[in-house]
């Protein structure tokens, strides 16, 4: 009986050992399978195309970002405690509108005292003039009295100037977008109290390539579209065309866009600007499918020494399946057009085909 019990216990221990061994082996297999496979040296299969100069025809259409025409800081002209401040975020204000006031009680008391002193000094000056005429005093007394009177008048004028600057005014018309201080706080002269943005007039900065800039003139109308309002077109007017190009031979053109129809457009909005008139020209172009994140953040991958290298570009007009490249690429460079989802900067790549 006893031997059978020992035999049974040994069998149970053996079974438990086998189970433990199998579990341990399976765990090691699972952990090995979870280890990431180093594929950094395995080339990604991609398709390539070549940046090339081709004919482009149609309206001049260029990307831009809207900005406020004017933006100004509401600030204090004199130091002091803010006695009153009538602005909040979103408050609509006009240019020159009084929006607050600096406490000037102490300055006013100083002015009152200065004016009393002026009255006394003026009497002293007149009396000394009479005494000099009667040889009762010397001319220096008149000179000193005149100096004291003029000094006090100058002090009073300075105090009046400080009082006149006690109003807090808005430098531009628009909407308050930032408020840094509240009533009761002390502000130094020139200290910023808030910010006002002109939301009624927006501007767009467009960089026009040299082969198109001659057709754009100040006063010319332009048409603005945005994905935020599909199917709608807003009208702008060219107010400036730079006489000097940048290092990439692009010329800055500024547009003014009225935004009084419910202030629908917002500063910072990405837009497409089209200029009236059509023309045919040649421009460096690449397939639009080469853009990794589209036209809002245009960059591509070029191939250098068998690796994918990220390259920022400035995009221009769209031409069917192609898009103009204003800067960032050179004629003949190879850009990746497929397999982009598997690519990181520095990835090894292998061309399936090349156009």
UniProtKB/TrEMBL annotation:
This protein's record includes keyword Coiled coil: yes
Domain YknX-like C-terminal permuted SH3-like: 283-349
Residues in coiled coil: 104-131
Any GO molecular function: efflux transmembrane transporter activity
SUPFAM superfamilies: HlyD-like secretion proteins
Domain CusB-like beta-barrel, residue spans: 205-278
PANTHER family given in the database record: HLYD FAMILY OF SECRETION PROTEINS, MULTIDRUG RESISTANCE PROTEIN MDTA
Similarity annotation: Belongs to the membrane fusion protein (MFP) (TC 8.A.1) family.
The name this protein goes by in its record: Efflux RND transporter periplasmic adaptor subunit
Organism expressing this protein natively: Chitinophaga oryziterrae
